[in-house]
Amino acid sequence: VEKMTDLVAVWEVALSDGVHKIEFEHGTTSGKRVVYVDGKEQIRKEWMFKLVGKETFTVGAAKTKAAINIDAVSGFAYEYTLDIDGKSLKKYLENRSKTTNTWILSLDGTVCRVVLEKDTMDVWCNGEKLETVGEFVEDGTETHFTVGDHDCCIKAVSSGKRKEGIIHTLIVDGREIPEAVE
């Protein structure tokens, strides 16, 4: 394996199907640009006369659009920024924390990352979209699914406060799991 000598930027991006590592090589003498997603080469351009610009690619199971922007800061210094879904990484992650809930728990010795997409009520576990059954209950809704032999349920209950909206709680085998902060 050739050593990444021109590695200039590394980002970790949490999506519903997992946390993805994006690495970018930029040869400022050769103009080489290489983008790796989770260690796999996505883009390789050997000779680029223009050292600034943008590389676009997709990340994860949902093929989320991503772009690396290459800007000259001064002289031979460059700045690299990552956009996800047309937003800066910071804005994307801030928005994501409003549209998803994430729980990390250990089941049968395996670390499970459970993600709820609030707009679609899709539930993901370690990169796979799960089959779910939703039902209305007295105080809200319950979304039932299984992970291995474990009964899981995401309860959605109104907080009673407009600003907070709906509170989602993951319950696994009757135990409440605290939400993770990514």
TrEMBL record:
GO terms for biological process: apoptotic process; negative regulation of extrinsic apoptotic signaling pathway via death domain receptors. The keyword tRNA-binding does not apply. The keyword Transmembrane helix does not apply. InterPro entries: FAIM1 (IPR010695), FAIM1_dom_sf (IPR038513). One of its GO terms (cellular component) is cytoplasm. It is found in: Cytoplasm. Keywords: Apoptosis, Cytoplasm. It comes from the Eukaryota. PANTHER family: FAS APOPTOTIC INHIBITORY MOLECULE 1, FAS APOPTOTIC INHIBITORY MOLECULE FAIM. Belongs to the FAIM1 family. Plays a role as an inducible effector molecule that mediates Fas resistance produced by surface Ig engagement in B cells. This is Fas apoptotic inhibitory molecule 1.
